[in-house]
Amino acid sequence: MTASAGLEARYLEARCRLRARSGACLGSLAGLALLLGGCGLLSYEPPRAGLDPRPSASMSPRPATPAAPSPGPSTTPRAQVPQPEADAQLLSAAARGDVEGVRAALAAGAHVNARGAGGRSPLVLAAAGHHAEVARVLVEAGGDVNQQDDRRDSAFLLAGAEGDTATLRLVAPSADPAILNRFGGTALIPAAERGHVEAVRFLLEATRTDVNHVNDLGWTALLEAIVLSSGGPPHQEIVRLLLAHGANPGIADREGVTPLGHARSRGYTEIARTLEAAGAR
User: Fold this and answer.
1) Do residue 246 and residue 201 come from a single domain?
2) Cα angle at 225 between 274 and 277, to 5 degrees?
3) Alpha-helix runs per DSSP H in the chain
4) Virtual CA dihedral for 203, 209, 212, 215, nearest 10 degrees?
5) What span, in angstroms and rounded, lies between the C-alpha atoms of 254 and 271?
6) Least packed by Cβ within 10 Å: which of 21, 74, 155, 160?
7) 219 three-class SS
8) What is the C-alpha separation between 189 and 184, in angstroms, rounded?
9) pLDDT per position in the chain (281 positions), as tens?
10) Angstrom distance (rounded) from CA 224 to CA 191
11) Reported pTM
């Protein structure tokens, strides 16, 4: 083969590669074969009549087999614990202050407002045990802060009575301050009676609790802070807080005895002075 013939052959071959997927280069291929045949390098036989001159299907490039899709994350649902068992686990964990146990029970399908012995909910059990972090988890999971047990205790009422300000702060935003305990009292009244200064301060400043509510015994928070107290410094401060937030020193008990009358009869001199300064008679 001459140099010019070799160059022409390479040219035809390159052009055919660009057009190889159509029949357009068939003539060029034939020309290339004739050229090479003329040089004694290829014996060319033209296609027989009646035969399709295009490349057979067996010679066409096969389409690539698509790769199998990689398996995605498992969608198998987590096995659920039977409802009564999950509820029992939640109630037990809440009562002992087990935060992770509470989370696990909720994840297993426990009802956040399940009722246990005495009708107590997980939130009521958490409040009774001063387990503020457990109360936080339960509130975030939708726990009902107003749900009351068989003794009419709710998480809000119990937190007030126990002086648990950490739990009070968690449940107060959703709590109804008008819900009453079994004595017909608000959360403020037992907090005042028991000398829980910070709980009283929070209830007065951060909630809509009625400072002059009268319970079934005929007592207000101010009366209970005197009648059922020792008259010491915590109760002296509570009397000041109640008066500063609108407590009426003129509301007497069912026998007609006023807060000042009770303070004087018990020898609570400091409380009596505070009442007198507020205009009590």
Assistant:
1) yes
2) 10
3) 3-18, 26-38, 83-96, 99-107, 122-128, 132-140, 155-162, 165-171, 188-193, 197-206, 221-227, 233-244, 259-266, 269-277
4) -100
5) 21
6) 74
7) coil
8) 10
9) 444 444 445 444 544 454 444 444 444 444 444 434 444 444 434 444 444 444 444 444 455 555 544 444 444 444 566 788 999 999 999 999 999 999 999 999 999 999 999 999 999 999 999 999 999 999 999 999 999 999 999 999 999 999 999 999 999 999 999 999 999 999 999 999 999 999 999 999 999 999 999 999 999 999 999 999 999 999 999 999 999 999 999 999 999 999 999 999 999 999 999 999 999 98
10) 10
11) 0.70
CA 226 to chain centre: 42
C-alpha 250/C-alpha 263 separation (Å) is 13
Q: Does residue 239 contact residue 202 with C-beta atoms inside 8 Å?
A: no
Residue pair 186/177 in contact by the 8 Å Cβ criterion = yes
- If asked whether residues 162 and 226 sit together in one domain, one would say no
C-alpha 205/C-alpha 196 separation (Å) is 14
Domain count, the chain: 2
- Separation of alpha carbons 133 and 95, rounded Å: 12
**Residue that finishes a domain, picked among 156, 176, 196:** 176
Q: Is residue 75 part of a domain?
A: no
Task: Tell me if 146 sits within 8 A of 156, measured CB to CB.
Answer: yes
Distance CA(161)–CA(241), nearest Å, equals: 17
Average pLDDT, the chain: 82
